[in-house]
Amino acid sequence: MARGALIIFEGVDRSGKSTQIKRIFNQMVNKGENVHLTRFPERTSEIGQTINGYLKSSNDLSDQAIHLLFSANRWEHAQSILNYMNNGTSVLVDRYAFSGVAFTAAKGLDLEWCKNPDRGLPKPDLVLQLDVDEETAKKRGGFGEERYEKVEFQRQVRKLYSQLREEHSDIWKIIDASGSVDELTPALQTHVDETIKSCQNKDIEKLWIKKD
Protein backbone atom coordinates (compact mmCIF):
# COMPACT_ATOMS: atom_id res chain seq x y z
CA MET A 1 0.00 0.00 0.00
CA ALA A 2 1.24 3.48 -0.87
CA ARG A 3 1.83 5.47 2.28
CA GLY A 4 0.41 8.86 3.13
CA ALA A 5 2.44 12.05 3.37
CA LEU A 6 3.23 14.12 6.45
CA ILE A 7 2.74 17.78 5.58
CA ILE A 8 3.41 20.57 8.06
CA PHE A 9 2.11 24.15 7.98
CA GLU A 10 4.39 26.58 9.84
CA GLY A 11 4.60 30.33 10.32
CA VAL A 12 4.54 33.14 12.84
CA ASP A 13 1.31 33.66 14.75
CA ARG A 14 -1.53 35.08 12.61
CA SER A 15 0.24 34.15 9.37
CA GLY A 16 -2.94 32.49 8.11
CA LYS A 17 -1.74 28.90 8.32
CA SER A 18 -4.72 27.62 10.31
CA THR A 19 -7.14 29.09 7.78
CA GLN A 20 -5.21 27.63 4.86
CA ILE A 21 -4.73 24.17 6.32
CA LYS A 22 -8.48 23.89 6.90
CA ARG A 23 -9.19 24.97 3.33
CA ILE A 24 -6.74 22.41 1.94
CA PHE A 25 -8.17 19.70 4.20
CA ASN A 26 -11.75 20.43 3.15
CA GLN A 27 -10.81 20.40 -0.53
CA MET A 28 -9.12 17.03 -0.14
CA VAL A 29 -12.08 15.57 1.74
CA ASN A 30 -14.45 16.81 -0.96
CA LYS A 31 -12.31 15.04 -3.57
CA GLY A 32 -12.52 11.80 -1.60
CA GLU A 33 -8.85 11.72 -0.63
CA ASN A 34 -7.63 9.99 2.52
CA VAL A 35 -6.53 12.81 4.79
CA HIS A 36 -6.33 13.58 8.51
CA LEU A 37 -5.96 17.03 10.09
CA THR A 38 -4.35 17.76 13.44
CA ARG A 39 -2.50 20.57 15.17
CA PHE A 40 0.06 21.16 17.89
CA PRO A 41 -0.25 21.81 20.65
CA GLU A 42 -3.03 19.25 20.73
CA ARG A 43 -4.88 20.67 23.71
CA THR A 44 -7.29 17.88 24.72
CA SER A 45 -4.82 15.60 26.54
CA GLU A 46 -3.62 16.29 30.08
CA ILE A 47 -0.32 17.55 28.71
CA GLY A 48 -2.16 19.65 26.15
CA GLN A 49 -4.36 21.21 28.81
CA THR A 50 -1.29 22.21 30.83
CA ILE A 51 0.19 23.82 27.71
CA ASN A 52 -3.07 25.60 27.01
CA GLY A 53 -3.07 27.09 30.49
CA TYR A 54 0.48 28.30 29.97
CA LEU A 55 -0.32 29.91 26.62
CA LYS A 56 -3.34 31.65 28.10
CA SER A 57 -1.01 32.93 30.85
CA SER A 58 -2.97 31.19 33.58
CA ASN A 59 0.07 29.25 34.80
CA ASP A 60 3.84 29.75 34.72
CA LEU A 61 6.53 27.20 33.93
CA SER A 62 10.24 27.49 33.24
CA ASP A 63 11.25 27.79 29.59
CA GLN A 64 12.86 24.36 29.74
CA ALA A 65 9.82 22.70 31.31
CA ILE A 66 7.29 24.09 28.83
CA HIS A 67 9.57 23.16 25.92
CA LEU A 68 9.68 19.55 27.10
CA LEU A 69 5.90 19.53 27.51
CA PHE A 70 5.43 20.77 23.94
CA SER A 71 7.69 17.94 22.77
CA ALA A 72 5.88 15.37 24.92
CA ASN A 73 2.62 16.54 23.37
CA ARG A 74 3.99 15.70 19.93
CA TRP A 75 5.34 12.35 21.06
CA GLU A 76 2.03 11.25 22.58
CA HIS A 77 0.49 11.56 19.11
CA ALA A 78 3.46 10.34 17.03
CA GLN A 79 2.31 6.73 16.77
CA SER A 80 -1.14 7.82 15.67
CA ILE A 81 0.42 9.93 12.90
CA LEU A 82 2.53 6.96 11.77
CA ASN A 83 -0.51 4.70 11.75
CA TYR A 84 -2.39 7.10 9.48
CA MET A 85 0.57 7.37 7.12
CA ASN A 86 1.18 3.62 6.95
CA ASN A 87 -2.50 3.07 6.18
CA GLY A 88 -2.34 5.40 3.18
CA THR A 89 -3.76 8.52 4.83
CA SER A 90 -1.91 11.82 4.48
CA VAL A 91 -1.61 13.91 7.64
CA LEU A 92 -1.81 17.71 7.61
CA VAL A 93 -0.37 19.30 10.76
CA ASP A 94 -0.77 22.88 11.96
CA ARG A 95 2.63 23.44 13.69
CA TYR A 96 5.18 20.76 14.52
CA ALA A 97 8.63 20.44 16.08
CA PHE A 98 9.95 23.39 14.08
CA SER A 99 7.61 25.70 15.97
CA GLY A 100 8.73 24.18 19.24
CA VAL A 101 12.38 24.77 18.44
CA ALA A 102 11.94 28.27 16.99
CA PHE A 103 9.73 29.57 19.79
CA THR A 104 11.97 28.26 22.58
CA ALA A 105 15.23 29.30 20.90
CA ALA A 106 13.70 32.77 20.48
CA LYS A 107 13.82 32.99 24.28
CA GLY A 108 17.59 32.52 24.15
CA LEU A 109 17.94 28.77 24.71
CA ASP A 110 20.46 26.79 22.67
CA LEU A 111 19.10 25.69 19.29
CA GLU A 112 20.60 22.18 19.46
CA TRP A 113 19.26 21.66 22.98
CA CYS A 114 15.84 22.64 21.69
CA LYS A 115 15.98 20.00 18.94
CA ASN A 116 16.99 17.09 21.15
CA PRO A 117 13.60 16.12 22.64
CA ASP A 118 12.06 15.88 19.16
CA ARG A 119 14.79 13.76 17.56
CA GLY A 120 13.18 10.65 16.13
CA LEU A 121 9.71 12.01 15.47
CA PRO A 122 8.32 11.22 12.01
CA LYS A 123 10.11 13.48 9.55
CA PRO A 124 7.79 15.58 7.39
CA ASP A 125 7.68 15.13 3.63
CA LEU A 126 6.85 18.81 3.19
CA VAL A 127 7.00 21.95 5.32
CA LEU A 128 4.97 24.90 4.07
CA GLN A 129 6.05 28.09 5.84
CA LEU A 130 3.49 30.84 5.39
CA ASP A 131 5.69 33.89 5.58
CA VAL A 132 4.38 37.28 6.63
CA ASP A 133 6.17 40.11 8.42
CA GLU A 134 5.40 40.74 12.06
CA GLU A 135 3.76 44.13 11.55
CA THR A 136 1.31 42.64 9.05
CA ALA A 137 0.56 39.77 11.42
CA LYS A 138 -0.06 42.24 14.23
CA LYS A 139 -2.85 43.91 12.23
CA ARG A 140 -4.72 40.65 11.80
CA GLY A 141 -7.55 39.70 14.12
CA GLY A 142 -6.72 38.11 17.45
CA PHE A 143 -3.04 39.08 17.63
CA GLY A 144 -1.93 39.43 21.25
CA GLU A 145 -4.41 36.99 22.77
CA GLU A 146 -1.74 34.47 23.74
CA ARG A 147 1.59 34.69 25.54
CA TYR A 148 3.92 34.65 22.53
CA GLU A 149 2.03 37.15 20.38
CA LYS A 150 4.43 40.08 20.67
CA VAL A 151 5.99 41.71 17.61
CA GLU A 152 9.65 41.51 18.64
CA PHE A 153 9.31 37.90 19.76
CA GLN A 154 7.63 36.94 16.49
CA ARG A 155 10.44 38.68 14.60
CA GLN A 156 12.99 36.48 16.33
CA VAL A 157 10.90 33.38 15.62
CA ARG A 158 10.87 34.29 11.94
CA LYS A 159 14.69 34.54 11.91
CA LEU A 160 14.97 31.11 13.49
CA TYR A 161 12.64 29.65 10.89
CA SER A 162 15.21 30.81 8.32
CA GLN A 163 17.93 28.80 10.06
CA LEU A 164 15.74 25.71 10.21
CA ARG A 165 14.76 26.13 6.58
CA GLU A 166 18.44 26.00 5.55
CA GLU A 167 18.78 22.62 7.28
CA HIS A 168 15.70 21.23 5.53
CA SER A 169 15.88 22.88 2.13
CA ASP A 170 14.87 19.62 0.43
CA ILE A 171 11.42 19.61 2.04
CA TRP A 172 10.83 23.25 3.03
CA LYS A 173 8.86 25.71 0.90
CA ILE A 174 8.46 29.35 1.90
CA ILE A 175 5.21 30.92 0.73
CA ASP A 176 4.44 34.65 0.65
CA ALA A 177 1.30 34.86 2.80
CA SER A 178 0.72 38.60 2.48
CA GLY A 179 -1.85 38.20 -0.29
CA SER A 180 -5.50 37.24 -0.14
CA VAL A 181 -6.73 33.94 1.26
CA ASP A 182 -8.14 32.89 -2.11
CA GLU A 183 -4.89 33.63 -3.95
CA LEU A 184 -2.82 31.54 -1.58
CA THR A 185 -4.80 28.29 -1.47
CA PRO A 186 -4.15 27.04 -5.05
CA ALA A 187 -0.38 27.40 -4.70
CA LEU A 188 -0.41 25.48 -1.43
CA GLN A 189 -2.64 22.79 -2.89
CA THR A 190 -0.20 22.26 -5.76
CA HIS A 191 2.69 21.66 -3.35
CA VAL A 192 0.55 19.29 -1.28
CA ASP A 193 -0.61 17.26 -4.30
CA GLU A 194 2.92 16.95 -5.69
CA THR A 195 4.29 15.77 -2.35
CA ILE A 196 1.59 13.14 -1.82
CA LYS A 197 2.38 11.66 -5.25
CA SER A 198 6.16 11.75 -4.87
CA CYS A 199 6.46 10.16 -1.41
CA GLN A 200 4.13 7.17 -1.83
CA ASN A 201 6.90 4.57 -2.04
CA LYS A 202 9.51 6.31 0.09
CA ASP A 203 10.49 5.22 3.59
CA ILE A 204 9.28 7.35 6.48
CA GLU A 205 12.39 8.98 7.92
CA LYS A 206 13.06 10.22 11.45
CA LEU A 207 13.45 13.90 12.23
CA TRP A 208 16.99 15.13 13.00
CA ILE A 209 18.40 11.59 12.73
CA LYS A 210 20.69 10.86 9.81
CA LYS A 211 20.01 7.76 7.74
CA ASP A 212 22.60 4.99 8.02
UniProtKB/TrEMBL annotation:
Q: Which PROSITE patterns match?
A: THYMIDYLATE_KINASE
Per the record, the pathway is: Pyrimidine metabolism; dTTP biosynthesis
**Reaction(s) catalyzed by this protein?**
dTMP + ATP = dTDP + ADP
Asked if the keyword Transport belongs to this entry, the reply reads no
**Top-level taxon of origin:** Eukaryota
Q: What's the family? A: Belongs to the thymidylate kinase family.
The identity of this protein, by name, is Thymidylate kinase
What's the source species for this entry? Oikopleura dioica (Tunicate)
